[in-house]
Amino acid sequence: xxxxxxxxxxxxxxxxxxxxxQIFVSAFGNTRESHFDASFLSLDSGQIAVTTDSxxxxxxxxxxxxxxxIAVSGTVNDLAVAGAxxxxxxxxxxxxxxxxxxxxxQIVQSLADEARAAGVRVVAGxxxxxxxxxxxxxxxxxxxxxIARSGKTVDPKTIESGDVVITSGTIGDHGIAILxxxxxxxxxTDLKSDxxxxxxxxxxxxxxAIAVKMMRDPTRGGVATTLVEIAEDFKVTIQxxxxxxPIRREVVGACDILxxxxxxxxxxxxxxxxxxxxxxxxxxxxxxRFPEGANAATIGEVTDTENGKLLLETPLGSRRRLHRLSGMxxxxxx
Amino acid sequence: MDRLDSGxxxxxxxxxxxxxxxxxxxxxFRPFIYQLATKNGxxxxxxxxxxxxxxxxxxxxxxxxQAVSGISRMKPRLSRIDKVETTWIPARGFxxxxxxxxxxxxxxxxxIPVDSATCADCLKEMRDPSNFRYHYPFINCTxxxxxxxxxDGLPYDRALTSMATFQMCDRCEAEYRxxxxxxxxxxxxxxxxxxxxVTLFDSTGDRLASRDQAVExxxxxxxxxxxxxxxxxxxxxxxxxxxxxxxxxxxxxRKGRPRKPLAVxxxxxxxxxxxxxxxxxxxxxxxxxxxxxxxxxxxxxxxxLLSAVVxxxxxxxxxxxxxxxxHHLLFDEGSYDYLVMTSANPSGLPMIFENxxxxxxLHGLADAVLLHNRRIxxxxxxxxxxxxxxxxxxxxxxRGYVPDPVDAGHLVDGIVALGSQMKNTFAIGRERQAIIGxxxxxxxxEESLEHYQKTLDHLLHWTxxxxxxxxxxxxxxYRTHDFAETFDVPVIEVQHHHAHHVACMAxxxxxxxxxGIVLDGTGxxxxxxxxxxxxxxxxxxxxxxxxxLRATPLPGGDxxxxxxxxxxxxxxxxxxxxxxxxLADVLFPEYQKEIRIIDRMIENKLNCPMxxxxxxxxxxxxxxxxxxxxxxxxxxxxxxxxxxxxPDEQQSVSCYPFQLTxxxxxxxxxxxxxxxxxxxxxxNGTDRAQIARRFHETVVAACVQTxxxxxxxxxxxxxxxVLSGGSMSNGYLSRRLVQSLEKQGFSVYIHHHFPxxxxxxxxxxxMIAACQKRD
Lengths: 334, 775
Ligand SMILES: [Fe+3]
Ligand SMILES: [Mg+2]
Ligand SMILES: [Zn+2]
Ligand SMILES: [Zn+2]
Fold this sequence. Notes:
The complex is a heterodimer of chains A (334) and B (775).
Chain A: H1 14-28, E1 48-55, E2 61-62, E3 65-66, H2 67-81, E4 84-96, H3 101-118, E5 121-130, E6 138-148, E7 164-167, H4 173-182, H5 199-207, E8 214-216, H6 222-234, E9 237-241, H7 249-258, E10 272-275, H8 280-288, E11 297-304, E12 310-313, E13 319-322
Parallel strand pairs in A: 4-5, 9-12
Antiparallel strand pairs in A: 1-6, 2-3, 4-6, 7-10, 7-11, 8-10, 9-11, 12-13
Helix pairs in contact in A: 1-3, 2-3
Chain B: E1 14-23, H1 29-40, E2 43-49, E3 52-59, H2 61-74, E4 80-89, E5 97-99, H3 120-126, H4 170-177, E6 198-202, E7 207-210, H5 211-223, E8 228-231, E9 236-241, H6 245-255, E10 264-266, H7 269-275, E11 276-277, H8 280-287, E12 293-298, H9 302-305, E13 316-320, H10 325-333, E14 338-343, H11 358-361, E15 368-372, E16 384-388, E17 391-396, E18 405-407, E19 415-417, E20 427-430, E21 433-436, H12 446-463, E22 469-473, H13 479-485, E23 491-494, H14 496-507, E24 514-524, E25 530-539, E26 542-549, E27 552-553, H15 558-562, H16 564-587, H17 592-603, E28 610-613, H18 614-624, H19 636-642, E29 659-663, E30 666-670, H20 672-683, H21 688-713, E31 720-724, H22 731-743, E32 747-749, H23 761-774
Parallel strand pairs in B: 2-5, 8-15, 10-13, 12-16, 19-22, 22-23, 24-31, 25-28, 26-30, 31-32
Antiparallel strand pairs in B: 1-3, 1-4, 2-3, 6-7, 6-15, 8-9, 9-14, 10-14, 11-12, 12-13, 16-17, 18-21, 19-20, 20-21, 24-25, 25-26, 27-28, 29-30
The complex binds fe (iii) ion, magnesium ion and zinc ion (2 copies).
């Protein structure tokens, strides 16, 4: 087999067949489904949850993961935070002509390993090869299918004052890890991306019968943008405690130099939960049993159910309103 | 006073109509005119109307003229006369003199009087052991005392003030009702028997003493170095002995303000003169009823008489005189001549002004709290004034001046201008009047925005204005941006520096298009870059941007504003490439690692907005000269840079080289060669004062050359130049700009009645929005 992807790898002929057999089918191990144009899946009765996401990551490999791993965790987490149990994935690859086969193999393997670890099966796939320069290396689209948990729903309408907001761990790791991995900034750090599927940890919380009122994974736009959306959508005011935010020293340091706010950095392996105050400790204890939840912490609370604002309380005791991530952080000091 | 009309009426008795404009309502002006008329035997009428006070005097011409001259000479203490207009009119044969009702019904009751420092008459009584108000800390009269801060509703009447809860005793009431008494209708009238009183609490909330003993004990505590929170007219101060470095340092560490200069209250003018140069004009401002903080030049003995940590790194010191009876008593009872008096609120948060929760709010700040039970309804900060070339200008316009309206010169009715993000004031238009609200500071905190909203609501309610349009800055991240949407009226966006330009025009009653040199911090430009070194031409109806400073990256945005070295490094790298990068390394060796990253941030355009602003240019030079690399307070780098040389020393220095380039018809000022040479001068050990002075001169020369070139090309452009923007607070810079431009034949105007900085922005926004609304 050639070392690089050529346009012929995508023309449906011999080369394409070889590529699929040697890289994809062997990694996913679903030989049965791969003989048909579509897969037949059996699901327990009930509601089905479906989601899809496309992954464009630069660089493709970074400390703590690669695009294959993110393509699993991103979609699995979207299902899990919606309150569904993820079961199946599909994966579509758009590959740039000239891409190294060894790299592709590594990405596909990582996608397969991650899916296995998360307990989901990759049941359909597709590859396209496009001319050099039309994409940057490889793009992946994944769709996820899951089933709704019976009898246990996440119901944001029940949010009330006093409910607490919990993060499953430190904030901003992925954003800084990626920035450092690009190498453009000369930023040196040991930081790893947090990218990980969270469905098992979320299962544990849901199985413990904790009344989770809202869950979201704070990916693009970070914790602030995610919580602003929750606040506005459900007309609740959320007040964060600046001092309570778990942020790694390396992230603080990098933000310091770059003038970034960790609350707006992307995360790929974190979940934010709103739970009743009474279940705060129990929730934290369950999260902390998992390696991806080791740094779980309460970061704020719901203070009213009318206004729909996200506020940050500073150590001085003043409150600052936070908005969605905006295009550029324009200075305002005049 | 304006020239008298010389028209010759016929007959013995002649009649003159006089319109007095300025602060002439709610300050006892009509009774004063009444007395002046009866003293001179003149008949006629006086009334308040929208223009001001209108007088008709009939009698002999010479007598009338003499009385007119008495208006300005003997005017009531709290009044301010901007203009006296006179017209001879046919006599109607009045048989007496009377105060007649206002022409526009009810309008005169809308006057909101301002707070005023204790007058000499009241002070004399307070110190007279035989007077029944001896040592009474709330003595006041019609010519002094609290006003705006205690008003709950209009018209201004005791029942609608926070004095309503105090029942006047017989003695006070007799004075209040006696038309010949100087406390006739003094709404906050009170005495020890019937009025508010003071109490001293320790930091745990235990009562230490009340009334006279409270003042005595507070004075004793201050004398031994304690920090006392003192409730004043507009809010709470933290006070401590300004001689004691230990006390001042303790205050600084408790407030978390390591270097920001602190204001000092002096026992009297003589005490102020012992530590600072006080000109006649400065003395008049210090002693005025507004009693602002006046920024004065320290003299040689300042560091002997005051702790050096009161105002480190600067040549000036902010001084004020006691302005409430309680302040005077604290000095009368104390052994000190100087007290640091700084606002008690944590920086960035609204003023503390209510008794409720006060001990919690002051916890860890004050050793004791000197409280009183007269409620402050509207907190207001101390005003800050500087006198340059005999003319005062505002750094902060608040207590004593707010909410005095001004004549906008145009109809501005129903316009609300929301002001800036920092140093915020808002402005509201009523008919032809502009009312600029109190200094509200930084709007970033939610608490500040809530306070802003309340303050604006009150003034809107009092003035009964129906809001027709809202003006806001273009900056999408200013807190006013979203707030503007809550009014449900059209929103008019105003460019930041256009607003500064027009504010200065309005301040000087200019109406024809003119040049504006706006030297400022950071303001949002419609092209998405940050502006702040602008040469504009225009008026309220529009502007052209004719020249500006070449933009350089601001790595990390606001972060680079707080840490001027970042901006300096970015400027060096961006303007001088490899050489600049090397210079940055040598100038800031402790930041080499960060400089590499900043270099890459610029290259990758990551979080690097482009900015061409005077404030940031000053910051960068300040950092290069190692004067200020990380700033503790807003404007520190620029202020300390301008204080690096003696501005009064007459010395001519040459300019650094600079270039004027042209791009798409727009002149661009390029200081690359200056920045390079300043860096080398610094590395070669050239005298810093010399570099700082040359830098100032270069900025002046660049502005003057730009204006001259623009006018040479387009002779149709104006001969008038207004100077505005935050950097104009730099007295040397604005003075040299005025001198140099005047030498080239331009008429030059600076701000007088409103701040040149962002505190004046709302006035400009108001004028621009009103103009758009009219069209
Ligand atoms: Fe400004
Ligand atoms: Mg997603
Ligand atoms: Zn008085
Ligand atoms: Zn009384």
